[in-house]
Amino acid sequence: MNALYKTLDISKQNFHQCLNRLILQEEEKGQLIKIIDKVRKDHPQMSARVMYRLIRPTHMGRDKFELFCFNLGYKVKQKKDYYRTTNSLGVTRFPNLLIEENFELTGVNQVWVSDITYYRINERFYYLTLIMDLYSRKIIGYSASENLLTISTTIPAVKMAMRERNNYKGVIFHSDGGGQYYCKEFLALTKDCIRNSMCETVYENANAERLNGILKNHYLYHYSPENYTSLKKMLKKAVFYYNEEKPHRALKGLSPNSYEINIRTKKVIS
């Protein structure tokens, strides 16, 4: 290996820096596919060049981004097929534990679901990461970020969820399989307490997808944040009102917080 470094005239430090950049690029690609698909669903005729200006990927220039989109078949509107493409890129996959184990919810801290979506302000996209306890529908972790890097998306959201919850060891963490849910930083943070689960189709993560729509359409669009700082404040406000006051049919008309209080106090919910 030392001979290889000398032959290539690079140091070990430079070699590992290059390797880390490649890893970050692959992680970003995994989530870009998800974001591009969501953008195309909302804007079927948006060109790759316009998407690049809005998404502003950290590790990909404009020409490479356009080629990336073209290779995925995004020249024209098409049926969702990004999970096949994701697998062809060699993305790490975890089984869907909710299906494999025929999981039945009986309490909180059994299943957390998560997804990353975009939010547009003027000519810029920002990214929202949400984590919800599937039993109580409570949002227990979230983040707003300027990029799709793991340290800006899933890491702060998971850390918030861990601070919010106790006795979560063994919880199933169910996601859509984006790069931020299988990278080394995420796995290092969750390896001793969380069981990773990933969906094969968007329908297997419908609760997280629905939550994205509620936060954006019922709250953030009406709050009209004007910049990134405002978006972070408005997201915090939206999560508060969602958890504290929004009634849920699945929770017998209670809000997520009220439902959890009923559970803790062992009140009967009829």
Write the layout of secondary structure elements.
Blueprint: H1 2-8, H2 12-42, H3 48-55, H4 62-71, H5 82-88, H6 97-100, E1 111-121, E2 124-133, E3 139-145, H7 154-164, E4 171-175, H8 184-190, E5 194-198, H9 206-223, H10 228-245, H11 256-264
Parallel strand pairs: 1-4, 4-5
Antiparallel strand pairs: 1-2, 2-3
Kindly describe this structure.
With 270 residues, the chain is of the alpha/beta class. It folds into 2 domains: 2-88, no CATH class; 97-264, Nucleotidyltransferase, domain 5 (2-Layer Sandwich), CATH 3.30.420. The chain is built from 11 helices and 5 strands, in the order H-H-H-H-H-H-E-E-E-H-E-H-E-H-H-H. It has a 5-stranded mixed beta sheet. The relative contact order is 0.12. The model is unreliable at 76-90 (pLDDT under 50).
Query: Can you name the CATH architecture of the largest domain?
Result: 2-Layer Sandwich
Low-confidence stretches: 76-90
How many helix segments? 11
Most strands sheet: 5 strands, mixed
Please name the defining characteristics of this protein.
270 residues; 5 strands; Nucleotidyltransferase, domain 5; alpha/beta; 11 helices
Briefly say what this structure is:
Helix content is 48%, strand content 14%. It is globular, with a radius of gyration of 20 Å.
